[in-house]
UniProtKB/TrEMBL annotation:
Transmembrane helix among keywords: yes
Keyword Transmembrane found: yes
Pfam families assigned: DUF7994 (PF25957)
Classification lineage: Archaea, Methanobacteriati, Methanobacteriota, Stenosarchaea group, Halobacteria
InterPro entries: DUF7994
Protein name: Uncharacterized protein
Regions that span the bilayer: 38-55, 67-86, 98-120
Keyword line: Membrane, Transmembrane, Transmembrane helix
Amino acid sequence: MHATTHRRLCGALGAGLLALIGGILVLAGAAPFGTPALAVQVVLVVTAGAFDVVAAFENPATARIDWVRLSGAAKVALGLALPVGVGGQAGGVGGPLVLVAAAAGGLSLVAVGVDMWYYAGRHVYGRPLSVDTERGANER
């Protein structure tokens, strides 16, 4: 998969996150903002969605900050959102085991985001995403 496809997939993920949160807010009203932990989780997911949507297209923000970095910031925000919502549910189903699982999943997303921010995805994808692989080796 080349960089353009990754970029469009980031936009689809961001749009999906924004649609999910929008749907929840339409159905539940202000209930997700009833506890501080859920409010922070909603804000982090909306931030992740917005960063991914912005990263998907050429615009003034991507002219200043590379799209891979914006997408990496989105992955960090999404990774932080996972344990925040679970940790705020005292006495929830599963208790500490669910919190540990959410933290492990969130940590892996944060690691992907950090790799995308600092190394353009070199460690996760095997090469930097900013490199266009469609060109032949002798054209570089």
